[in-house]
Design a protein that fits this description.
Shape: globular
Number of strands: 15
Number of helices: 8
Helix content: 10-25%
Strand order of the largest sheet: 1-4-5-3-2-13-12
CATH class: Alpha Beta
Order of helices and strands: HEEHEHEEEEEHEHEEHEHHEEE
CATH architecture: 4-Layer Sandwich
């Protein structure tokens, strides 16, 4: 396909425009975290606002509940979606003093972000603009370098195009599906472009991909699920809100990264079971999805992004 060929040609490097990146910091407190594994998650926090003209009105207790869910899942790093701005995320992070975050710099009303425990070494590289196929209708991703223990990897956080009630004609439905397929192609090509250079073997694609690879009809995930270099860790998980549906929030990894997966650790934090319906709906219409990975096995590709404790570019 011409689109994929073009993406591979133009974006064989990780991303571009890195001068646009900005690291958002909280305080410098460090905690002792699990020294045997890293917990990687993804969480669409539905229309997380900053308290000013928000789509979803949340109380201070609601922000605290969101923070407690992340804390209880023991996540070291979480890809986030539907974040209005840095101020909105700061309202959650105030209850997570051991965490910091980076957030996309685009002007979309819904941004993506990476929340991470400060004991994890993280370098936010840049917005990944190729995923923004149509202005204001699709969103860029984020590329982040991560290291904990002997495990270093690259992460692309994404929020693919949804099909929704606004797609009220067959033509609109098809357009949304086509956009999502193109985004899946671009994410798949991004992973291939990293792996083909053999400098980094561990790659993650995480986020709200708005579909399941288990879908039989109109499956839009096939560019990722059919990629022999990638594994859909979350394809068999069931939704926390719709018990007969599969999740649309995913963790996709390279084969090398999958070898570090701790057995039976791919999970959904189902707060719809632990909270009242009213309180759960103030958290999100999605649930936190996460998995655990070993960090003690010898590193197979020493990071080019961290040198002697300092961040470095390739």
């Amino acid at each position: 396909m011409r689109v994929k060929a073009l993406i591979l040609a133009l974006f064989s490097f990780i991303c571009f425009g890195c001068e646009r990146c900005e690291r958002k910091k909280t305080d410098d407190f460090r905690e002792v975290s699990n020294q045997k594994e890293i917990v990687v998650g993804t969480f669409n926090i539905e229309w997380l606002g900053d308290g000013v003209n928000d789509r979803i009105d949340r109380t201070e207790e609601d922000y605290k509940t969101i923070a407690e869910i992340i804390k209880e899942a023991d996540c070291d790093i979480v890809g986030l979606q539907e974040i209005e701005n840095a101020s909105a995320l700061e309202r959650v992070v105030r209850y997570l003093p051991n965490y910091s975050f980076v957030i996309s710099n685009d002007d979309a009303p819904q941004k993506v972000a990476v929340l991470f425990r400060k004991t994890v070494r993280v370098k936010f590289i840049c917005d990944y603009s190729p995923l923004e196929i149509v202005d204001r209708r699709t969103r860029p991703g984020l590329v982040t370098a991560v290291q904990k223990g002997d495990f270093d990897f690259l992460v692309l956080v994404a929020h693919f195009k949804a099909t929704s009630r606004f797609d009220d004609t067959p033509e609109k439905l098809e357009e949304s599906r086509v956009l999502r397929i193109r985004q899946a192609e671009i994410a798949s090509a991004w992973a291939d472009s990293i792996l083909q250079h053999k400098n980094e073997l561990d790659v993650f694609i995480i986020g709200d991909l708005n579909d399941t690879p288990r879908r039989v009809k109109f499956n839009t995930m096939y560019p990722l699920s059919d990629n022999p270099n990638l594994i859909f860790l979350t394809e068999s998980l069931k939704s926390c809100r719709y018990e007969n549906a599969y999740v649309i929030d995913h963790i996709v990894v390279s084969k090398s990264a999958s070898e570090r997966l701790i057995p039976n650790s791919v999970s959904v934090y189902n707060f719809y079971r632990t909270l009242s319906k009213e309180k759960a709906e103030k958290v999100s219409d999605h649930c936190l999805v996460f998995a655990r990975f070993d960090i003690l096995a010898p590193d197979n590709d020493p990071s080019k992004y961290f040198v002697d404790g300092k961040v470095a570019f390739r």
